[in-house]
Amino acid sequence: MRFKGLRVCCLVTFLLVAGSFFQSEAQAKDEEYRKVFDNWTLACTEAKPVAGKCQIIQARDIKNEKGVSSRLLQLSVGRLEGGKLYLNLLLPLGLDLRSGVALKIGEGAQTNMPFTTCMANGCQALVAMSDLMITDFKKVKVATVGFRPWNAKQAAQFQIPLPGFAEALAVLP
After folding, report:
1. Is residue 125 a contact partner of residue 101, using CB atoms and an 8 Å limit?
2. Which CATH number fits the domain 2-95+114-133+164-171, given the four candidates 2.60.40, 2.20.28, 1.10.1060, 1.20.120?
3. Rounded Cα distance, 90 and 73, in Å
4. Beta strands in 30-167 (DSSP E)
5. What are the pLDDT digits (tens) for 23-58?
């Protein structure tokens, strides 16, 4: 049953990310709810926040030499059935999937997450959040996400600012 809930969460994440490709911007603004909390955004697939239809999201983009932005990674947190939280990382295609994703919150222990699936918009790694992970996300200022591009000898690491997480989580239905 736990994996069924995670699959549903993957689907919700995919719908939130992909939804903008299938709707006009004005239409999406009327049908979706968004509220920003520092580095995090509460995003819902409906006009009002409803349990099971919302996630808190932080996206990190990079610019190429021509100044064009592209999505590097996206973290999203949502609720499984029963209220348990999950963390979903969406990363670009072209990674060494065997090594998975490393997440380190502040100076805490590293959490290794296997990739669960790859789709047209990137590859996902998904984990149910422990109470300690939730507490650390609320209190610590930065987390580090590491992953290895295909044929790279070393992992790429990116810092994720955590301010705003506690406030966004407090209003996540």
Report:
1. yes
2. 2.60.40
3. 6
4. 33-37, 40-44, 54-63, 69-79, 85-91, 101-105, 110-113, 115-119, 122-128, 142-147, 156-161
5. 444 444 567 899 999 999 999 999 988 888 999 999
User: Which residues neighbour 133 within 8 Å (Cβ) at sequence distance 6 or greater?
Assistant: 87, 105, 111
- Is pTM beyond 0.85? Reply is no
**What is the amino acid identity at position 156?**
A
Structural domain spans, the chain = 2-95+114-133+164-171
3-state SS assignment for residue 51: coil
Residue 162 burial (CB count, 10 A): 22
CA distance 48 to 15: 16
What is the distance between the alpha carbons of residues 30 and 129, in angstroms, rounded to a whole number? 31
